[in-house]
Amino acid sequence: AVTSGGVAAGNAATTAAQTPAWGLGRVVALEHPETWGGLIDLDPAEPDADSHAAAIVAELLCSDGEDQVAYRDGDRLVARLERAERLPEPDPAALDPTAAYLVTGGRGALGLRVATRLAERGARHLVLLGRRPPTGQAAQVIRKLAGSGVTVHLPDADVADSPAMAALFDTTGTSWPAIRGVVHAAGVFTPVPVDAMTWRDFRDVLRAKVEGTLVLGAVTATARLDFFVMFSSASSVWGSALAGHYVAANHFLDVMAHDRVRRGLPGLAVNWGWWSDSEMAAHHAGYFEAMGLSVLPDEEGLDAFDRLLGSSRVQVTVAPVDWARFRPVLSAKRDRPLLADLDPEPVVAAGEGNAALLDRLAAAHPAARRRLAEELVQRETAAVLGRAPDDPPERDLGFFTAGMDSITSVELKTRLEAALGVRLPATVAFEHPNVAALAGFLVHDVLEPLLPAEEPEAGDDATGELPADLAGLPEDELLRLLEAELDRPE
């Protein structure tokens, strides 16, 4: 995809309408790596069309693997995720008790946590925006806030409704004082793959975050705000399958934070991980844990919110990540240059492997090695896919057609490494996507240089007898092994 001003880079102005394309692209890269080329953001300050064309051609011809590139002032910039310096201590100054503070999505679990923390910091007027009356636990939290001396205002409004939002900031018609701070935490999510996504799916998710942010920006243009915090998602930084619309919407928030600060306005985007009790954590916690993404404990998240509220940061990712597990999963189908500047992966020596299996492979005829390798791959693939040992996948059935995903592909890689005592690339299951292809790679590219060369005995050619490890095989199996050998690349 090619955009101009679709990503925050350098000091150039951004183009709001083009920013969601970058978030969507990060998900296409995960869901369809076989067709993915990358993202190029042209310099919006460069008027020369020939210069833009030259930049695009240069990227098409470039082979350095970078897939997120922006051009600014003649420089080629690439995307990198870096560890942030330690966040500053929270600002000791209390919030203004005579002012009001708006929380969109303020009646949801996360919005109420934030509202409670604002009250603990001194806020005495909270405007909790929503479209439905609070019930159950939400009503209890609101009663508790009121009991602590906080006046809680509950206007029913859609954050993307411009007239309704303008009315919230018109102090002549409201029962609360002027709003001095905004926390934009509204948002919805419904998982759907990019190739099945309709325009309505896309628009429904973008409405609260994209249209809501634009409306909030317009109605607060002349307001005196102490902070304008947008709750984004870590998924907008590295992508997330089934979330193309959600990542697109959150990337918009990220870029708007930089745009606001560039224009001298308060702006902060926090790319949160998964909060406890969130809808995402409730339904997918096990899946995320397997990837290396843990649920963000409430107190850790709120402490980070405290520290960021008084800081000069513009965009920060706050998420507990086990990079030793998450990096291989994220890179299972494609190298991810975005992660290149993080702590390097620890170099783990290959294990000793399964001695009995390695002895059999070393002693076997090359064709029999292929058969042993296929049996190993079938056995381990069945294990990671939860299939019975007597129901291994067919040798030509695609791994991902059979139900493998990035997590299980990394598990397969790990199991094969343990069995063979070797190190394999993170993308091995994607680059060799079925039993036959992966077994061939293991035999010819991984094991062959390590195993002893075959020493044929004198007279083997004259007798025409089969090696002992092939003699007992049926004719159709022998023909299949012969075909595999003939198909072997030189």
Protein architecture, described:
With 490 residues, the protein is an alpha/beta fold. Helices cover 44% and strands 10% of the residues. The protein is built from 19 helices and 11 strands. The chain has helices at 19-31, 49-61, 109-120, 136-147, 162-168, 199-219, 235-238, 244-262, 279-291, 298-309, 323-330, 355-363, 366-384, 406-420, 428-431, 435-447, 460-463, 468-471, 475-486; strands at 2-4, 39-42, 68-72, 75-78, 100-104, 125-128, 151-153, 179-184, 227-233, 268-272, 315-318. The strands form 2 sheets. It has a 7-stranded parallel beta sheet, with helices on both faces. A 4-stranded mixed beta sheet has the order 1-2-3-4, with helices on both faces. α3 (109-120) packs parallel to α4 and α6 (199-219) runs parallel beside α8. The two termini are 37 Å apart. The mean pLDDT is 91.
Write the layout of secondary structure elements.
Elements (H helix, E strand, L loop, with lengths): L1 E3 L14 H13 L7 E4 L6 H13 L6 E5 L2 E4 L21 E5 L4 H12 L4 E4 L7 H12 L3 E3 L8 H7 L10 E6 L14 H21 L7 E7 L1 H4 L5 H19 L5 E5 L6 H13 L6 H12 L5 E4 L4 H8 L24 H9 L2 H19 L21 H15 L7 H4 L3 H13 L12 H4 L4 H4 L3 H12 L4
Parallel strand pairs: 1-2, 2-3, 5-6, 5-8, 6-7, 8-9, 9-10, 10-11
Antiparallel strand pairs: 3-4
Helix pairs in contact: 1-8, 3-4, 6-8, 13-14, 13-16, 13-19
